[in-house]
Each structure stands twice: as C-alpha cells, then as structure tokens.
Amino acid sequence: MKTSVDVKTLTLVQAITDGLDTMMNEKQEVILLGEDIGKNGGVFRATDKLQEKYGEKRVIDTPLSEAGFVGAGIGMAVNGFLPVIEIQFLGFIYPAYEQIVTHASRLRMRTMGHFTVPMVIRAPYGAGVRAPEIHCDSTEAVFTHMPGIKVVCPSNPYDAKGLLIAAIEDPDPVLYLEPMRLYRSLKGEVPDGKYTVEIGKANKLLEGEDVTLIAWGAMIPETLRAAEVAKSKGIKCDVIDLRSLFPIDKDMIAESVQKTGRTVVVHEAHATGGLGNDIIAIINDTSFLYQKAPVERVTGFDVPVPYFGFEDHYLPTPERILYGIEKVMKF
Amino acid sequence: MESQFPMKQIVDTNGKIVLPEYKERITAELAKEFFKQMIRIRTFDRKALSLQRQGRIGTYAPFEGQEGAQVGSAMALNDGDWMFPTYRDHGAAIVFGHSLMRVLLFWNGRNEGCVPPVGKRIFPPGIPIATQIPHAAGAAFAEKQKGTSAASIAYFGDGATSEGDFHEGINFASVLRAPVIFFNQNNHYAISVPMSKQMNSKTIAQKSLAYDIPGIRIDGNDVFSSYFETLAALEKARNGEGPTLIEAVTWRYGAHTTSDDPGRYRDQGENVRRREEADPILRVERWLKNEGLYDESWVEEVKEGAVAEVEAAVLEMEAFPQANPADIFDHVFAKPTWQIEKQKKNYLDFIGGERS
C-alpha cells in the first residue's frame, strides 16, 4: 500500500496557485474574482493558467472596482459560493474596507448566524521589492483590530498552501496576506493534494532558551538571520512564526516567553497600533511574572511606507533585530 | 451610444483637416509646438524605459502612443490651472511644466519626484486608480469659491471609470458646477483587461449622461482635437458652466508597466498597425508635409534638442544626493509627534553607530 504523498518543490507563489487549483478541483463552489487574474494569471501569476483550466465562469476578471467585487463576493458567499478574491496589492484594498469591516466581518453577528460569509481575500503586502509607491503597505493591524475577520500570513510554501486551503474551508471571512518579497525568493517542499495548516496555530522555527523572537511573513528570513548571528554570539533564540495574526496562538507565545523571559517582536508595519502591541498584551496577561526584560519591538516607523529609494531605512533589518536582541539580553 | 457620441477628429490619419472650421485656428506655429512637445515626451519615455531596463530607475509606466492626448490637453491649460495626473501622465505633466529630472526621480523611488516646480500646480501621480478624480473636483471647486478663473484637469484611464471615485468625483463636480475637465484616455486596456470586460458601455463619454454634464468623444491620437476640445471645455468651466467629460480614444504601444508582459493578453501586431496608421506624431508630420511646412533640418533640431534635454535630466537625476533617512521622519506632520521624534533619533543614532 502506498502511503507516501508526492511532494513538489515550489516557490511561495506557486504553492498559492497549487492551493487554489487543489480547492477549485475539489469544490465547484470555489470561484476566483479579481483584477487581471484571468488571461494574465494575476500580476504576480498567482492564478497562472487557472482560467485556462477552469474557465471564465470560475476565474473572473473583474472590473477595476475593489469595493464592487469584494461586495459582490459577500453576496456570492451568502448565496452558496466560496469566493477567493485577489486584491492586486494590499495598498489598493481600502475602497473595499467598508465592505470588509461593516459587512463581511459582521454579517454573521448581525443575523445571529443566519447569513455567513465564507470568503477569502488574498492580498500581496509589504516592502522591500523596489515596488512603486503605495504598493508596499503592511497594514494587517487595521484588519486584526476589526472583529469578525481572521488574518493569516504564510512565510513559506508549505504554509502558503496549507493556510490557503484552511482559509477557503473556514466558515468565516479570512484575509490572506502574501509576502510579496518572498513570492519567489525561496522554495520549499509542498505535498500534492489537500492538507491544511490550522488557523490560529503558530510555528516554532527554532528552539532556544535565551530570547523569544516573534515575527511573520516577510520578516521571517530577516529574523532567522538575526537569530543566526545571535547564536554565534552565544545567544540562543526561540523563533516563532506567528502565521495566524488573528486569532493569535497565545499558548505558543506563553510557553516560549515563560521559558526565555525575554522577547523581541518584529514586524514591518508601523509601531503604533501594530500587532506587536497585542503580543505584548498577551505576554502581560499570561506571563508577566516570568519576564526578565521589557518586550522590545523592532518595527517599521510611524511614517507612511516611503518610496523605495528610502525603504531600506524603513524596513527592519537583521542588524536592527540583533540590536533588539542585545538590548533585551543586556537589560 | 457610439452614434450619439461619435469620435471627433479635426485632423485625420492622413494629416488632412476634416473640420474646415478649424482651418484658421491651426497655425504652423501651433502644429510645430505640438510636434516638438510630442517628440520631447516620446524621447523622455523611451529613455526612461531604457533606464529601467538597465536598472537605473525602478518600475516604469510607459505612455508611448498617447502623446496626442497628453500634449493637446496639457497645452490647453493656463499656467494657474491644476493638473491631477496618473502614473501614466507624466508626459502631460512635463508639457505643463514639470521638471524632467523630478519625474525621473519619482520613478527612481524618491519622494522628491513628487515636488512640482515652483508655481506649478501639479499633483503627485495618482497611484490607486481613480483616486485623483475627486481631488480635481475639489481643487476646482475651491477655485470657484475663491472666485478665480482657474480650472483643473483630472487624467484617468478606461479602467478608472469602474471605480466609485470616478462617479463620486464627477457627481460632486456636476452638482457644484466645479470648473474641472475629466480627461479620460481610453487606451482600451486596464493592464490586461480589455474594455469589453471592463464595462458594457460602448463609450466612456456616455457616462456623462448620468451626471448631466457634457460628454465628448475624440480621437485621442489627434492632438488637434485633444487641444481644441480641452480648450473649449476649459472655457465653459471658466465661465461657470461646470465640468466636462472628454474621452480621448487612444492606445498604449507598450506594457502597462515594465513589470508586465502584454504579449500574454493582447495581439501585439495591433501595435504595429496602429503605429503605422494612427501614430499621433506621424499625424502632425503628415499635416506639416501636406502644408509644405515640414523641414528636415528643423525636425533634426527638435529631435536633437529633445535628446539633449533628456540626457541632461538623466545626469542631473543620477547626480542627485542619496536618500536622506531623516526625510522619512520630517515630512509626516508639520510638527513631528513624540513617537516620530524618538524613532528618528534612535534610527539615526543606530546607523551612525551610536546605539542608545
């Protein structure tokens, strides 16, 4: 009997395509909406060849109107479909913000479960690829702040596919953030067929007893690099890839920070109102008495993400993360 | 609807005047200025494309093929008017007086590229689609409130007419009779999505009906139509008659941006056909030839002048000082908040080797 599953080596964006393909193949209700996702296969090719395979009825090039097609996605979701919507760049999602936060995220509550919105919104996010202005936002916190929508963000091909399938199968709306910077910069093994990565569960990438590093998405490679340098200096890091930004895996955080007593949170989003603050709240709530140093945040600054000529100054770097690690160690 | 909004041409593809009433107004001087400006911005566009290919600037959105629409409309403006371009309208911005060096800086990821020359009311390029349209309505309404005769022009593409901001901006301007020109360049594609998938409407101009404002459809590759229709609409606007929607039907020869491969979604042979038949520069050239005004040595002079101007701008852009990290903190508010001040200090100390 053959028990092994075939595995492919894919980039992160290919793993997303594979996840979409897997679910479109399995469920007729899965339908893709977005700008340039058909013939063009999406500006990042995340839907490459899917229109060819599943037809124009299931892979729909929408008019250029984010509020319109996200709103329409809600209507389709309450009426039997499982829409997976592509927003071309997270920085272009704002016209749809009203549809997301006043409708998708609260329809279940408003109708006491009568109408629900099993919809996924995919959006590439983040800086560091010399993309034009306003293509580089990392505004996960404006969504995690709003009740009623889950937010996930993979950092590797395996999680990309597994989280996407979990998101499509989730009964509630999920914002699925794609780190643009990692689309093609790394490859990983991805099993064929269907599997899920549970929403709400983080992933421990590295075990260490001195400092807990918490990051996600495009900040994972930077954080791992910092951890490596720290190791050469004798500091052992516990590295958590949060993966799920709402809900957050508080148990893994608590377990880790109770062990290390020192934490550095890394995110490329702005510091004020950033998700790092929620992580600090979790540490306060679960592990206050274990702390040996104040939690350090290494984040983007409280300025709009600048043009790419300045982005290297904006983004957290391994050096800045390392400095954060040294700071909590020295406290 | 196409018969209700026929595509107006003043000079046809053979360089012949088809509307005799414009004969007197089309002077050699005007035609030569059109020609010169179109050569100028095409030279810029091609150079920028090549700079991107060489990694000397970032992603670039070329406009080649749309020079007729951009030059005609921009030349119709007065100095005190407002311009709200998109990322594909820097041709118009340059004609209106933007600095070539600054435009290149914009495409090289520098905020300095959004700063217009002193006295020029040119907004930074609209990046999220259609978002500049309400701004143009508001700036125009402000001029009306102030009692000036200045107007504004908003540029946008075919895809932009699907966005709420397009409808909301036009409606606002219509209700408040704001002196604004909504100048659409219909190049038939929103990245890969053809107009037939973008809308059922056969024209963009017909969208004016919903807001009860004048809607005009012109051959956007006819710089004469672009100029005279914009001029006429501006005159109405300045006279308190409110906004006009102009649809300039055109075509981009190249990609949406340098990140895009148009071969995936459209027949690229169409570019060759259009270039031969309907190129906006060729049309003025033909008119000049028909009138016996085409002077090879003058054309050479224009082309050489354009190359020299663009090359000088490239040198200036490349000699521009490195990005100053303090700039990302200093321009967020008139007076920085304590968070920004603290982050700035920490970061500058950090990169200066001083770690606090």
From TrEMBL, chain A:
<dbReference type="Pfam" id="PF02779">
    <property type="entry name" value="Transket_pyr"/>
</dbReference>
<protein>
    <submittedName>
        <fullName>Alpha-ketoacid dehydrogenase subunit beta</fullName>
    </submittedName>
</protein>
<feature type="domain" description="Transketolase-like pyrimidine-binding">
    <location>
        <begin position="10"/>
        <end position="185"/>
    </location>
</feature>
<dbReference type="InterPro" id="IPR033248">
    <property type="entry name" value="Transketolase_C"/>
</dbReference>
<dbReference type="InterPro" id="IPR009014">
    <property type="entry name" value="Transketo_C/PFOR_II"/>
</dbReference>
<keyword id="KW-0560">Oxidoreductase</keyword>
<dbReference type="GO" id="GO:0016491">
    <property type="term" value="F:oxidoreductase activity"/>
</dbReference>
<dbReference type="Pfam" id="PF02780">
    <property type="entry name" value="Transketolase_C"/>
</dbReference>
<keyword id="KW-0786">Thiamine pyrophosphate</keyword>
<dbReference type="InterPro" id="IPR029061">
    <property type="entry name" value="THDP-binding"/>
</dbReference>
<dbReference type="InterPro" id="IPR005475">
    <property type="entry name" value="Transketolase-like_Pyr-bd"/>
</dbReference>
From TrEMBL, chain B:
<feature type="domain" description="Dehydrogenase E1 component">
    <location>
        <begin position="37"/>
        <end position="325"/>
    </location>
</feature>
<dbReference type="InterPro" id="IPR001017">
    <property type="entry name" value="DH_E1"/>
</dbReference>
<keyword id="KW-0560">Oxidoreductase</keyword>
<dbReference type="GO" id="GO:0009083">
    <property type="term" value="P:branched-chain amino acid catabolic process"/>
</dbReference>
<dbReference type="InterPro" id="IPR029061">
    <property type="entry name" value="THDP-binding"/>
</dbReference>
<dbReference type="InterPro" id="IPR017596">
    <property type="entry name" value="PdhA/BkdA"/>
</dbReference>
<protein>
    <recommendedName>
        <fullName>Pyruvate dehydrogenase E1 component subunit alpha</fullName>
        <ecNumber>1.2.4.1</ecNumber>
    </recommendedName>
</protein>
<keyword id="KW-0670">Pyruvate</keyword>
<comment type="subunit">
    <text>Heterodimer of an alpha and a beta chain.</text>
</comment>
<dbReference type="InterPro" id="IPR050771">
    <property type="entry name" value="Alpha-ketoacid_DH_E1_comp"/>
</dbReference>
<comment type="function">
    <text>The pyruvate dehydrogenase complex catalyzes the overall conversion of pyruvate to acetyl-CoA and CO(2). It contains multiple copies of three enzymatic components: pyruvate dehydrogenase (E1), dihydrolipoamide acetyltransferase (E2) and lipoamide dehydrogenase (E3).</text>
</comment>
<dbReference type="Pfam" id="PF00676">
    <property type="entry name" value="E1_dh"/>
</dbReference>
<dbReference type="GO" id="GO:0004739">
    <property type="term" value="F:pyruvate dehydrogenase (acetyl-transferring) activity"/>
</dbReference>
<keyword id="KW-0786">Thiamine pyrophosphate</keyword>
